[in-house]
Write a structure and sequence with these properties.
about 475 residues; 18 strands
Length: about 475
């Protein structure tokens, strides 16, 4: 390898990112901060070691081809030899860089059993689930002396994985300082960079920053300022970690309580526990968010409607929770959902009926998606006392992770884009059901009884023709 400088890091964030020794490094934030060049240069440091193996990951083949084209230019003076399908970069010492993409779910498992001492992941927020990321970096390990395993990731705010990336890297501590996992001792760090930290771009294309300044407000905050509280196309732009997330506290027994549920077996299910104070503020103070596999691992038995109902009842009993009702997807009353059909005719009980028989007090949700969005938007807005109407306990991690990543559907006006995976939009549907159920404003402590009309309505929804001691004692 010739003794010549083929690339030099800019002072500031770029140089700082390239000198970190943390296990996981996330670099970027805003656009134009020199992320791609930094990642390419980071991989070169160890190419003199014949045992060095690195992996470069991009979301799809087109982006990967663009990265390889740029790498050919930067690596021209290293003696690198490029082979394709998939692209491999071999250096004179025997060191090698492999490339890959994530076009399908199985791609995350394609590298299991491999050893890569260094792993570069471009546009990290395009990976929708943290689990997939963890599967991927499980191959970042080293049996080579002097080559400590490291992950170097780059990204901008936004994308399907915005929520989990924000939680894992952005919200855990002060930017630029190492975060140490308490259980494992593993370290990670986020190094933010903006276009103004890239003097080359500012000199060669000074108009770029002016283009960023002219973007719509949300895009400008995300792409120019590197704000992680704003996502391109974000639905709930008022959602802020600092105001909507609160530390847990003891909820007074005089507050009203409700539950809501979005049922799922292959997709995650989401159960939420809500309480309302005497100033119209709603708190999500508990969540149960699992896939069927998670449930089986935790409970030791496969997920069924009856078993989930029993788990919810157990949580209520253990925590002395008296709730007015649990509002759920009306599709849970469909016989087809239960998977029981005989001779073309419904057979057996629906999911909702099974849960009600197990003791849950269910009512059907109003599944109007457009009005549900508006109700939830109102709840997230600021109340006259300066606090949001809707706040979430910091222990409800899936909900907190979800809200910043919700974006508009490209094909439906005034609707949220449906997303699978974890956390997906399941917590959003659950919250939408709840707020569309129009929970009443709590009365003063000495006048906390439901009206007879309200009681009759709830009894009808619960499938009860008359009064019930169990129901009445809740109110």
């Amino acid at each position: 390898m010739p003794n010549e400088v083929i690339w030099k890091a800019h002072p500031g964030p770029q140089r700082k990112a390239l000198t970190r020794t943390d296990k996981e490094i996330l670099y970027g934030g805003a656009r134009g901060g020199g992320k791609t060049d930094a990642g390419m240069a980071w991989l070169l440091r160890w190419i003199g070691n014949p045992k060095y193996r690195g992996l470069i990951i991009r979301k799809d083949g087109k982006d990967l081809s663009d990265w390889v084209d740029r790498a050919r230019i930067m690596y021209a003076g290293t003696g690198a030899n490029f082979a394709y399908r998939p692209a491999e970069i071999k250096f004179p010492s025997g060191a090698m860089l492999r490339t890959g993409h994530l076009n399908d779910a199985n791609a995350y498992e394609a590298y299991q059993g491999h050893e890569y001492q260094k792993m570069l992941i471009e546009e990290l927020t395009q990976i929708p689930e943290e689990e997939s990321y963890l599967k991927l970096i499980s191959s970042c390990r080293s049996t080579v002396d002097g080559l400590d395993p490291q992950v170097f990731a780059t990204t901008n705010p936004g994308g399907s994985g915005h929520g989990w990336v924000k939680e894992r890297f952005i919200d855990v501590g002060k930017w630029g300082e190492t975060y140490v996992e308490e259980k494992t001792g593993l370290t990670r760090v986020f190094i933010p960079a903006k276009v103004t930290d890239n003097p080359t771009l500012m000199e060669k294309d000074s108009s770029y920053i002016h283009m960023l300044e002219q973007l719509p407000d949300n895009l400008r905050k995300a792409w120019k300022d590197g704000s992680w509280d704003i996502v391109a196309g974000q639905v709930f732009t008022e959602w802020k970690q600092s105001t909507h997330v609160v530390e847990p506290f003891d909820i007074p027994p005089t507050w009203n309580h409700w539950l809501a549920m979005d049922w799922g077996t292959n997709a995650p299910f989401a159960v939420g526990w809500y309480a309302q104070d005497f100033h119209q503020h709603i708190y999500l103070y508990r969540e149960l968010y699992m896939t069927g596999l998670d449930f089986e691992a935790a409970i030791g038995m496969p997920l069924t409607p009856k078993r989930l109902a029993k788990v919810v009842k157990m949580i209520n009993k253990k925590n002395h929770i008296n709730y007015q009702y649990c509002v759920v997807d009306p599709a849970m009353w469909n016989d087809a959902v239960s998977g029981k059909q005989k001779g073309g005719q419904p057979s057996g009980k629906s999911v909702a009926e099974t849960m009600m028989k197990a003791g849950l007090k269910l009512i059907k949700a109003d599944n109007d998606r457009v009005n549900g969005l508006e109700r939830l938007r109102e709840a997230i807005a600021t109340a006259p006392d300066g606090k949001p109407f809707y706040m979430v306990f910091s222990t409800c991690r899936k909900t907190i992770q979800m809200y910043p990543s919700l974006t508009y559907d490209n094909y439906k006006i005034n609707d949220v884009k449906k997303t699978g995976g974890d956390p997906g939009d399941h917590g959003y549907d659950r919250d939408r059901y709840f707020f569309m159920s129009r929970p009443p404003v709590p009365r003063a402590k000495d006048d906390n009884a439901e009206s007879p009309i309200r009681k009759a309505y709830l009894r009808a929804q619960l499938g009860q023709s008359g009064s019930s001691d169990e129901v009445d004692e809740v109110y």
